[in-house]
Design a protein that fits this description.
two-stranded antiparallel ribbon; mainly alpha; single chain; 11 helices; three-stranded mixed beta sheet; about 35% helix
Amino acid sequence: MLAAPPRPPLDVDLFSSNTLFGEPGIYPRGTPMVPADGSALDRDAARDALASVGLDDASARFDDAALVALVPAPGPRAGMASLVGTIGEPLLDAFLAGETAVRTIEVGEPTSPGRVIGPARGATAGDGHHRVVNFRYRAEHPALLALSLMHDLLWNPAGSGQYEECILHALGAMVHLQLLARAPALAHIGTELARRQNSLAITLLNSRHVGSADLALIAPDGPGTIPGGAPTMQTPDFWSIPFVSGEPVASPAPSALAPVLAQVLAPGTLLPDPVRFDSALGAVLSDHLGRAWLSLLDQLAAARALGALP
């Protein structure tokens, strides 16, 4: 079933539709996207949101004193706690130990209105350690932030290129797929952020060589990442998605990336030396993805949650 060619999803309203901040949707015939309405989540609402989809291990981490001190806002803190049990959990530990570029997270207005998480508007170069969850997404289910938190904890705001953006978006999509396998209801929340995150997840899910069930970032022979979707957004594989413009350039990778890679790569895989965001790392991630992070049954559950399979 998983090795069959990707098919159009059963419900295009699970994915991005209208152009948002200059980015076209992958299924334009879907209904317009709308962010979750309401005020920022308080402590009880954030905790209840995690419990409502069965993320009990995240709920247990939510009140960790060290996490409260660095992420006092309940919504973003619950999003950080959602990394527990995913490939992003080592990043959560690194963040708490002060080993990531990000030091604090709150709710605010990012420099770019289209970013889910990023430096605050008006931030100077010296403020790069402090990030904000876009106020636009203050009322969204906190587990929907996990994909973007994964990306931002490893992202270099001083400048990144296509390789870095593609690899970080892929790792974030892996986190979302893991959460959907455990909590399929997240795919069906229907809000703007849910649809944005689902779009990255299904694009990665469909990035495969012909006849294979295994995800592959680089698959030039792939049958297409968004079957039945916008022709201008169609690519054969995840690696071909133009996340940024210009000539691809390599960029340095933070030390916090290594324990994340250990979660997704097959045992014994040798990493390039040095580890950078470049085509060499992309090839390793494509050719040597393991199964420990996403079993066949988990992949099947995520595919069903996204309507990629009945």
